[in-house]
Write a structure and sequence with these properties.
24% helix; 4-stranded mixed sheet; 26% strand; alpha+beta; single chain; two-stranded antiparallel ribbon; 60s Ribosomal Protein L30, Chain: A
Length: 140
């Protein structure tokens, strides 16, 4: 199954703790709300078996960059300061209960982040069998 989410990828952030409550920063909270709306439109039944996920994060380029630099970096690997695993956490947590029952079913992940004129997330997910259907490291 291949899905494209028309949303600006945001890395997951740690919850902030105040004297009265625990909360997430506004930017991440807005991402989670928008993902909830986008996943609510999907008409899928969650996978029950183990799954393999491939995801490409198309990150928007900074507006301060020159046209020349934007053209040069477009579709190239993204070298911003945000960790790839934080982008993964944000999207995979949003898909809990939608594409799979729980994210512990994910046994294989392929991910990359690239610069793009238009930010979005490409996700491909498929169910894998119990019988050593996974690739071994070095044999990818």
């Amino acid at each position: 199954m291949r899905i494209t989410f028309d949303i600006d990828p945001i890395p997951a952030s740690r919850p902030r703790v105040s004297r009265w409550s625990t909360y997430y920063p506004k930017r991440y909270t807005k991402f989670r709300e928008k993902m909830k709306a986008l996943t609510g439109e999907l008409e899928t039944t969650p996978f029950e078996k183990l799954v393999s996920v491939s995801v490409v994060f198309h990150i928007g380029m900074p507006k301060s960059w020159s046209k020349k630099k934007k053209k040069e970096k477009n579709k190239g690997f993204c070298d911003n300061n945000a960790d790839l695993d934080n982008y993964q956490k944000a999207i995979l947590d949003s898909l809990n209960g939608v594409l799979y029952i729980d994210d512990r079913q994910i046994v294989e992940i392929f991910a990359s982040k690239r610069y793009s004129d238009k930010p979005f997330i490409e996700l491909e997910i498929h169910e894998i069998g119990e019988e050593n259907d996974c690739r071994e490291i070095g044999n990818v």
